[in-house]
Write a structure and sequence with these properties.
Layout (H helix, E strand, L loop, with lengths): L4 H17 L9 H23 L9 H19 L3 H23 L5 H20 L1 H4 L5 E2 L16 H23 L2 H11 L1 H6 L4 H27 L1 E2 L1 H4 L2 H16 L5 H20 L6 H16 L4 H17 L1
Antiparallel strand pairs: 1-2
Helix pairs in contact: 2-7, 2-10, 2-12, 2-13, 3-4, 3-5, 3-10, 3-12, 4-10, 7-10, 8-10, 12-13, 12-14, 13-14
């Protein structure tokens, strides 16, 4: 805990209260509410990535594979068999966990950028398979989520974005709670020991390979569940979008790193910056300067890393400490 522990608690309560109330004053059909929904969803995704990328320093660039597995599993089960997306989310989480297990067994022995490249290749492989398997995924044409309001709330489909907002809000809180529970547990201490010095962690008896494997599977399962929520919110997606390196994998990592990797509040701060920035850039510029939003938050990430590699939260704490020392003189 930091020295601002009481202030951090107050800030947490105030933030939760604001997030719970603000949507009530927005147009339920409006663009602003959709941006808030995406902020919460990608904040939760950044928090799920934070378990393996932040605590264990395993920089994964293949999380889009888990995200896509969750989206496709629930959509196919709902469209072809009429099964509730809630069950589809469970199936997607199981399939993503199996995929993460198969991927992690060989790749977790790799170090640094070799691990990142291996996960990047796995995500790209998932995209290629989805593009080729047209009988199941629809291929490059994409797949639509059937709109069945008669199925009720169990279909996770709503006429306005307001119920989606509170659904994403609950998902964000749950994923954040899971992250906090992991971080403060013995499991989390082992992960951070691996991050600081993996060889030293092994010397003191930490089974580093097993711990990293468990973190990867947990992170994959949470990401897949969030993929289901995304599918029911967007109603249409294609392999290039749902398995996209820049649109999903890199964005998840950027959100956590920009806000403060390995911290509880970091992914929310990162999503608070990146998602509106990207949406506004796309809205203002359209297709005239495609990719400018990614370039912009890439530059922002570089600036933050140069100023303080620990992210915006740590940068704010540094500025606060400097002001406190200056006022105390």
């Amino acid at each position: 805990m930091t020295r601002s522990h009481p202030l951090a608690r107050l800030l947490l309560v105030a933030t939760i209260a604001a997030l719970a109330v603000v949507p009530l004053f927005l147009d339920p059909f409006g663009y602003a509410l959709r941006i808030l929904c995406l902020m919460l969803l990608f904040g939760a995704l950044g928090q799920a990535w934070n378990i393996v990328g932040g605590l264990a320093n395993q920089i994964s660039l293949g999380h889009a594979a888990y995200f896509g597995i969750g989206a496709y599993s629930s959509t196919i089960l709902f469209g072809s068999f009429g099964l509730t997306p809630i069950l589809g989310a469970v199936v997607g989480a199981v399939l993503a966990s199996i995929f993460a297990l198969l991927l992690s067994i060989p790749t977790l022995r790799l170090k640094g950028h070799y691990f990142a490249l291996a996960t990047l290749a796995a995500g790209e492989m998932a995209r290629i398979v989805a593009n080729s398997w047209t009988s199941v995924t629809g291929g490059p044409v994409g797949i639509s989520v059937p709109f069945r309001p008669e199925a009720g709330p169990w279909a996770l489909q709503f006429e306005t974005a307001l119920p989606n907002y509170y659904l994403f809000f609950a998902a964000f809180l749950i994923v954040t709670l899971i992250f906090w529970r992991v971080k403060t547990s013995a499991f989390g201490y082992r992960l951070r020991a691996i991050k600081e010095n993996e060889i030293a962690a092994e010397v003191v008896g930490v089974d580093t390979y097993r711990v990293k494997l468990q973190a990867s599977v947990l992170s994959a399962a949470l990401t897949a569940v969030l993929g289901t929520l995304y599918a029911q919110f967007q109603f249409f997606f294609d392999p290039d979008t749902i398995f996209g390196v820049a649109t999903i994998s890199v964005k998840m990592a950027l959100i956590a790193i920009l806000g403060g990797v390995g911290t509880i509040f970091g992914p929310w701060v990162g999503a608070l910056v990146i998602i509106p920035l990207e949406e506004l850039a796309n809205s203002w510029l359209g297709n005239s300067l495609a990719g400018l939003s990614q370039f912009t938050y890439g530059v922002l990430l570089i600036v933050v890393i140069l100023l303080n590699p620990r992210g915006l939260i740590s940068l704010a704490e540094t500025l606060r400490d400097r002001l406190s020392r200056r006022n105390g003189q």
